[in-house]
Amino acid sequence: MKIIVAADYDEMSKLAANHVAQWVRQNPKAVLGLPTGGTPLGMYRNLIEMHRGSNLSFKDVTTFNLDEYVGLEPHHSNSYRYYMYENFFKHIDVQEHNVNIPDGTAEDLEQECIHYEDKIRNAGGIDLMVLGLGNNGHIGFNEPSDRFPATTHVTKLDESTVQANARFFERIDQVPRYSITIGIGSIMRCRRILLLASGKAKARAISAALEGPVTPSLPASILQFHPDVTVILDAEAASKLTNAV
Ligand code: GLP
């Protein structure tokens, strides 16, 4: 595991964008796993700038988003599909048919999960998965639990996650309680992982994930067992690490 500590959010975002861009330049047909949330917004902004200013193309890139709320229509301004188009996809040259986001409005959600997992497999697996981190150590929407879920599944959000995500909604009762998320097994099958975290609120989860025991009660801790993980943190998120580089 390689841990890089950036001075602040802007530097973390630039380093993250460079990491992704380098991989896409070397592998124009890369399959990327992508997160939502506040953390990757700066990375997406930098990638858009590189697309506009320095020929970075996503024309042949395939993307798989990590998760989606259950019950929000795709055009709902809080759906992750809407977020991805607004903050990234509509500004770059990725092709619509190469974009994959779980459908949280599918009539048969179990079938949607199986279908999503099949699509990842048919694409040859994910080359580079970018992850954010929940304050409680979740990755995607894999919440603290007594087991590591293997594949894409429907999950109930932790009360703390509902509270954390309420900032994007007008009222807390509008935050969906369920989501579809890629599973921990699916994340572990990705060839490379880039984990990003920023701010004091993530410091405890980062130190537990990177330096604590591997346990499903802190899902991100499983990344200690992945052979190719890069972690990019800002100084605040790294502040509780004892062995930060
Ligand atoms: C959300 C998403 C995660 C994201 C995390 C952190 O609930 N499902 O994929 O990484 O929370 O979000 P933020 O970056 O806003 O702190």
Q: Can you offer a commentary on this structure?
A:
This protein is an alpha/beta fold and 245 residues long. It has a single domain, classed as 3-Layer(aba) Sandwich (Rossmann fold), CATH 3.40.50.1360. Helix content is 30%, strand content 17%. It has a seven-stranded parallel β-sheet, with helices on both faces. Helix 1 (9-26) packs across helix 2 (41-53). The longest helix is centred in the N-terminal third of the chain and has 18 residues, at 9-26. The chain is globular, with a radius of gyration of 17 Å. The mean pLDDT is 96. The protein binds 2-amino-2-deoxy-6-O-phosphono-alpha-D-glucopyranose (GLP). 2-amino-2-deoxy-6-O-phosphono-alpha-D-glucopyranose binds next to helix 5.
Can you tag this structure with a few keywords?
245 residues, alpha/beta, Rossmann fold, seven-stranded parallel beta sheet, three-stranded antiparallel beta sheet, 7 helices, 10 strands, 30% helix, globular
Summed up, what is this model?
It is built from seven helices and ten strands.
Please describe the biggest sheet, giving its number of strands, its sense, and whether it closes into a barrel: 7 strands, parallel
Cα-atom radius of gyration: 17 Å
Helical proportion, percent range = 25-40%
Strand order of the largest sheet: 1-10-9-6-2-3-5
Which structural class should the secondary elements be placed in?
A: alpha/beta
How many structural domains?
A: 1
H and E string: EHEHEEHEHEEHEHEHE
Report the β-strand fraction as a percent range: 15-25%
Alpha-carbon distance between the termini? 11 Å
| CATH class assignment | Alpha Beta
